[in-house]
Amino acid sequence: xxxxxxxxxxxxxxxxxxxxxxxxxxxxxxxxxxxxxxxxxxxxxxxxxxxxxxxxxxxxxxxxxxxxxxxxxxxxxxxxxxxxxxxxxxxxxxxxxxxxxxxx
Length: 104
Description:
Elements: E1 9-11, H1 15-21, H2 26-40, H3 44-49, E2 56-62, E3 68-73, E4 79-85, E5 88-95
Parallel strand pairs: 1-5
Antiparallel strand pairs: 2-3, 3-4, 4-5
């Protein structure tokens, strides 16, 4: 906790996320890494208010723990699907073709 706020912790262990992450082109990889670094620097309250990630719930999906799944922007054309579990932002998948995040 920083200043009494719960910091965002990242879980990048999903195989689907890693399969795409490890095949990204260098320019896309750089953008995703910058986005992940930015996420790590935020507390949860700040993430919910941050407009750059375009954080939005995906109504037709639910996480393994039953919580909502969210789409967030990690690059110019790259979105990720993730959910919150306690302090963790657990990534499910990564979508270099921005619109495919909504068709999962």
